[in-house]
Amino acid sequence: MPDRIAAKLAFLPPEPTYTVLAPEQRRPRGAPAPAPAAASAADAAAQPPPQQPEEGAGAGPGACSLHLSERADWQYSQRELDAVEVFFSRTARDNRLGCMFVRCAPSSRYTLLFSHGNAVDLGQMCSFYIGLGSRINCNIFSYDYSGYGVSSGKPSEKNLYADIDAAWQALRTRYGVSPENIILYGQSIGTVPTVDLASRYECAAVILHSPLMSGLRVAFPDTRKTYCFDAFPSIDKISKVTSPVLVIHGTEDEVIDFSHGLAMYERCPRAVEPLWVEGAGHNDIELYAQYLERLKQFISHELPNS
User: Which residue from 36, 39, 56, 192 has the highest number of Cβ atoms inside 10 Å of its Cβ?
Assistant: First the structure.
């Protein structure tokens, strides 16, 4: 039942905006780009192409390569694109997980483990990650939820939790980043796996960007308690988060009401000064100057940087 509610409320995977090619599939420079995959991630899971990159492939000179379609709206040059590492991991629920590491700040202490919002994939987020990471001086590790981008399976609440677990393990084992140097960042639906993971593991900090209390509370704002058939009950997990938490929310959010951010903030044991963006909606907080200012202040001055 919760997964049925979750599917109705939350998941809108776009047509994939990128492909990941194994080393032997890489085209020579100057050759035309391959057409982006038209098949859905679920189709890809059912019928993997003959030369699908293996889990774990993607580091070193024989690395996987990322190819973006026009819909990814790439904002940078080939040099920046070449620096983006992509590879596959495998979740405990046996889905193939597309992962991306954007090395924006090699000397930085912190890496953001970024769980993106709905209706986007890694291809569309890639330019944003480069801009954000270089401005706040953090590397960014991200992943596509099951059924999004090149990740196999179907989107569901259980898969969300397994997806972020696999991403956390990949960041720790593949790149050797320890928990005290990981900042969990969740945006919109991405706050759901972020809160779940943060309630089970301690990390440097947690950033919740337009969080939701639970699925039913989004659909039915008068809901006052968590029912057994509710989905995404983050409001019941946030009190178990022992890391510092920064909550960011727009006061005019038309998708997840501002009251959700307020309630999550009030339940955080270690909440820091929140950012309430006056007049901002659900998808435009990043356009306000105080967004970057608050992130820089939090990461550079309120967290340890030695």
Answer: 192
The 3-state secondary structure of 116-159, one letter per residue: CCCCCCHHHHHHHHHHHHHHHCCEEEEECCCCCCCCCCCCCHHH
C-alpha angle with apex 142: 141 to 147, nearest 5 degrees? 160
| CB 87 within 8 Å of CB 64 | yes
CA angle 128, 215, 14 (to 5 degrees): 40
* Residue 148 binned pLDDT confidence (cut-offs 50, 70, 90): very high
Asked if 282 contacts 256 with a C-beta cutoff of 8 angstroms, the reply is yes
Are the C-beta atoms of 81 and 21 separated by less than 8 Å?
no
Strand duo 111-115 + 18-21: pairing: unpaired
Residues annotated as catalytic are 188, 253, 282
CATH superfamily of 197-305: Alpha/Beta hydrolase fold, catalytic domain (3.40.50.1820)
pLDDT surpasses 90 at 103: yes
CB atoms within 10 A of CB 94: 11
In this structure, whether the domain defined by 68-177 belongs to CATH 3.40.50.1820 is answered with yes
Percent of the chain exceeding pLDDT 90 equals 72
Domain boundaries defined on the chain = 68-177, 197-305
